Structure formats: C-alpha cells, structure tokens
Amino acid sequence: MTAATALIAELQRDKRFKATCPACMEAFRLCDAVLFAWSDQPPKAALTALYAMRERIKERKRELAHSRELMTTTARRTAQAVNLGKIVEKIVPSFASFAYEPGDCRALFEPIDYLIFSGLARQNQVEALFFVDVKSGNARLSRAQASIKKALEAGAVRFGRTQSGD
Questions:
Q1: DSSP-assigned beta bridge partners for residue 75
Q2: CB neighbours of 15 closer than 8 A, spacing ≥ 6?
Q3: CA distances from 108 to 19, 33, 42 (A)
Q4: How far lies 63's CA from each of 59, 66, 67, 68, in Å?
Q5: In angstroms, what CA-CA distances link 134 with 62, 79, 90?
Q6: Main-chain dihedrals φ then ψ at residue 158, nearest 5 degrees
Q7: Global pTM value
Q8: What is the pLDDT of residues 23-75, one digit of tens each?
Q9: I need a surface site. Which of 29, 47, 97, 131 has the fewest CB within 10 A?
C-alpha cells in the first residue's frame, strides 16, 4: 500500500475530516467524497463526474456563444435605432404631426433637441418658450435632460445678457 493510498483510506474511514467545496463553498465530510490518488486509475464515479462536468462546460460554451451573438445583434439594432433617432430628431419640425410652428424652432440637439419660441415666426412676438426633446419608442430622458426638466418645473429660469468684448 502506497502512502497516498493509506492516507486516502484514513480520510475515508474517519468522519471527522472535512473539506470545503471550491465551487459552492459548502463544507462536506471527506468520507462522503470519492477520493483517489492521481497515480491510480480513477474510480468509475470520478470518471462519470468528470465526463458530466465536461458536457456541462461544452453546453455552457454553446450558451455563451449564443448569448454573445444575441448581444451583438441587440447592440447593432440599438445603434441603428439611435442613429435613426438622431436623423429623425433633426427633421421632425417638418412633419405635419409636429405640434409647433417650424419657424419658431431653434435646434440645440444637445442636451435638448429644440427650443421653441412660440409666436415668433408669425407675430414676431414670443408668447411662450418650450424646451422640446424628440423621443421615439421607449426612450427616456437622459440624466441631464431630466435635470433640465426639473429646473424648468421649479422655475429656475433666468434671462442672461453679456457684453461683447469690443
């Protein structure tokens, strides 16, 4: 009997020896484990577990490859939608469904798409100002846009004027 075989026999006989699973971090008794010396032929239970593990790894690799492919497709679709949205937001004032007079629109595009000077084009008199951001689908306001909305709703709006440095 080799030293390794003797040690394994002792670990399997004595119920006091415990180990921690490196995968799940749970403790277990070594007498409940399938132990063998590396130099010996592995027991059938160990080979079965090894083959099952290899199959799980192969399946997980297939799942990851599929997930990666889906992520690439999703990213491509998202990028296309964003790019289309950026184009549409530039031409939306020309749409009949646009709620504001195109001549009242001034494009900012960042962080808000348009500042509308309501009444400016027809009466040369501004009746109201509207901050308008064009969104499609389920798009939400960015953090900066939400802070602009909050400032407007709180009445934190001022008119500023500066002198040119002539």
A1: none
A2: 29, 31
A3: 65, 69, 71
A4: 6, 5, 6, 9
A5: 40, 17, 9
A6: -135, 160
A7: 0.49
A8: 889 999 989 888 888 777 888 888 898 899 999 999 999 999 998 888 888 88
A9: 97
